[in-house]
Amino acid sequence: MTTWTTVCRYDDLLPERGAAALVGDLQLALFRCHDGQLFAIGNQDPFTGAWVLARGIVGSRAQRRTVASPLHKQVFDLRTGECLDAEGVTVPVYEVRSREGMVEVNVT
Amino acid sequence: METNSGRRLVVVGNGMVGQHFVEALRERDVDRHWQVTVFGEEPRRAYDRVALSSYFDGASPQSLDLVASGCYDGHGYRLHLDEAVIAIDRAARTVTTSRGRAVGYDELVLATGSAPFIPPVPGADLPGCFVYRTLDDMDAIRAAAQRATARVGLVVGGGLLGLEAARALRLLGLAVHVVEMAPRLMPLQVDEGGGALLRRLVEELGVTVHLGTFAAAVTEAAPDQAAPRLVTLGDGTELPVDLVVFAAGVRPRDQLARDAGLAVGARGGVVVDAGCRTADAAVHAIGECACIDGTVYGLVAPGYAMGSVLADRLAGGNAEFRAADTATKLKLLGVDVASFGDALATTDGALEVTVNDPVAGSYAKLVVSDDATTLLGGVLVGDASRYAALRALVGRPLPGDPLAMLAPRGDGGVPGGALPADAMVCSCHAVTREAIDTAIAGSGLTTVAEIKGCTKAGTGCGSCVPMLSTLLTESGVTVNKALCEHFDCSRAELFDLVRVQQIRTFSELVGRYGRGRGCDVCKPVVASVLASLGNGHILDGEQAALQDTNDAFLANIQRNGTYSVVPRIPGGEITPEKLIAIGTVARDFDLYTKITGGQRIDLLGARLEQLPAIWRRLVDAGFESGHAYGKALRTVKSCVGSTWCRYGVQDSLGLAIALELRYRGIRSPHKIKAGVSGCARECAEARGKDIGVIATENGWNLYVGGNGGFRPRHADLLLTDVDTETLIRTIDRFIVFYVRTADRLQRTSSWVESLSTGPGGEQADGLDYLRSVLVDDALGIAAELDAAIERHVGAYEDEWAAVLDDPVRLRRFVSFVNAPDTPDPSISFVTERGQPRPVLLGLPSAAVPAPAVPASGVPAAVPAR
Q1: What is the ipTM for the molecules in this complex?
Q2: How many structural domains is chain A composed of?
Q3: Largest CB tally within 10 Å, which of B323, B361, B399, B490?
Q4: Predicted confidence (pLDDT) per residue in B350-409, tens digit
Q5: Burial class (CB in 10 A: 0-12, 13-18, 19+), B414
């Protein structure tokens, strides 16, 4: 089932940075890339347990959009949630879209 | 703002600049964010207008074509030829074309170029009169030349365009007259001496030059005359000709914009800002149709620069156009002519050094500053082989005697090695000597063609191609200093690129010198470089996205996602009131407190959303940021010095406070710590610092390059028994020199050591070298280093207070974007020894290679980042 939850205004997100969002009990990290594309992943850093991925540096590795954990800099693919520095480690990813200036996520 | 769906971009004009812009945008638009529609009124797609006369020299229209293959492959980028845009409806955001189509846009780019200026000469509209602008014009001129009976053509205009047209007529086999109103040919570029030689060389080729007069009328000749037209000059001379070409300059084509109610400049041209935007935010103009900062540029290089700026803007950057290099080099009628910089010596006190060799047919002039040390500009006629090297040296110290640099061909002229690393070799595409060297070394390039493909250098006007070849020859094996996958150069090289090119954004830098969108390695480096060069608050604009974790929130992240807050306590001196204020803040926000090694107080356990309130209290109590979060000056540790201590010989505390306040906030490759001891007992442990000062009976000893931490090193003695003024001046220069030339995350200890190894690996005395640069100004950069510190001191502001004063900056300090005041539920504390201590966080269930997580209260080793 697809249920879209409105989280914030698109303009609340800063270009090429993340923002944490709270949907129910779920902590998400939302990212707005330089070209306007949006991504949503789980906010928890799997290496330390801290809920901080939204505060990492957004960038690219080869063709992938990435965020680096602010604690020890492991890099995650924003599209797949896969950690590019440690095999087998992933973070959850969520569907996200922008509609009429609002950011919506699907966490079902 | 729209996001995922393509935004509609309409480009009016497919000339050289319009096409350059589209390709520059396409390069940045990797995700095909834009739906681009280009209209060109000519039946041909963009071609090289600068080389038009070569059309009569065997060039085909195909060989002049400029469009990169695959540029318009149907996927979002479409080109419509033979279709002009005839009206703009800004309210509806549509354009109407000559084929009656209405096309909507989100952003509109005017690249309509210019139209030939035809002076108001009676008869200028007769058959046999032409302009010189398009390939169609060329075809018409060629057809007329084929019908010519007298085999004579006349060109109105003795500037760049006029001499190009004269070349074209000569190639068509006509005898040529050139009429120029000014007293010399190419009056805008060439001085009197160069103009005289140019006239002689041109006349030797069979061109008749008429100076200081004008075409007064064109009339039909009587039927019995050999030539069908008669041109009467201002002085009454009558010249029978077959055809007349008007090449007396161009005017910006701004009618579309005028009709749409957009402002134009005093001499025409659509008025745009440094981002190439008109007063209507959705409409932009670039190239010869634009009036930027009051100037309309009639050269292709500034047009290309505008195209790149606009592409960067539309890709989310904020590049700015800066006054362009109008240096020119052309082969006119087989004669090399070049001018660059202040060619006409208009600078106050400028001196001219001239070599005129009528036998060899060359004229060269260098314009130098009144003290004959700095190259300001020059003119070269007949032999322009030194153009690329000399132009790159404009504004820089002369590497040698100016006369020697102008010595006749054969002695090699200026070697590539004389060019500074940041010298602009290709000004059309803004490629530095260093970028070329980096490309040669980094990509193992072996041919000029590869350099062109890799750097674009040499693909504009081509005048730098000989220099590319020189650089290739001179290049040895160079180590790859690539910062990361996004940049091929080192931090020091990036610093120079940013400084010399006055780059202000990451987008511009990565667009011009890198690839991709950066990472946690290069972005903080660029953030630091931009901050060192004074680009405002580190959380403003695009800079915000570059900051490392700690800089991004002006606090130090801890293992549970909370932050530590460290106010500055200069020299470790603090009043009882301020001590009490820190105590009450810690108590009210339930923070853990600890005295640091740098003689200040760390407040730990602050949640992200609490930071502004904590800062508010601290700032109100007279504190400011201590920059504990930055690669920046941390503390200047000291003892109490001669004021209190019975052994002290100088006021070490007073000096420590002065130094800390002077250098606070400065961004550097790594953190900088300093110490000042009041006597040789060294209670401040200054020799373990990057900068250590120890008082002597006669003044101060200065030590540099010390380190504690990971790899302890005692600092080296740089200066002995100097006065306070000399001491501070030397520290100023040391810091800036380090900031500019060290590698990423290189502490002063290893930087100072690296100075002991020469470029070829030979051992040298690094301290002697450092002394020669900082004290004796061996590199001639001392004044620049001093100025950099003065700028820093003048521009300093407290980063915390600057956030508190700004609602936009404050917006980022929330726990959740949709629940700004809800604390992160995962953060909790227990009490230990009377203070809060973080409760360890559970890891997610997914298997994770075991990180260093303490089992109890025993701290695990966490590498400092």
Answers
A1: 0.96
A2: 1
A3: B490
A4: 888 888 877 778 888 888 888 888 888 888 888 877 787 788 788 888 777 777 777 654
A5: buried
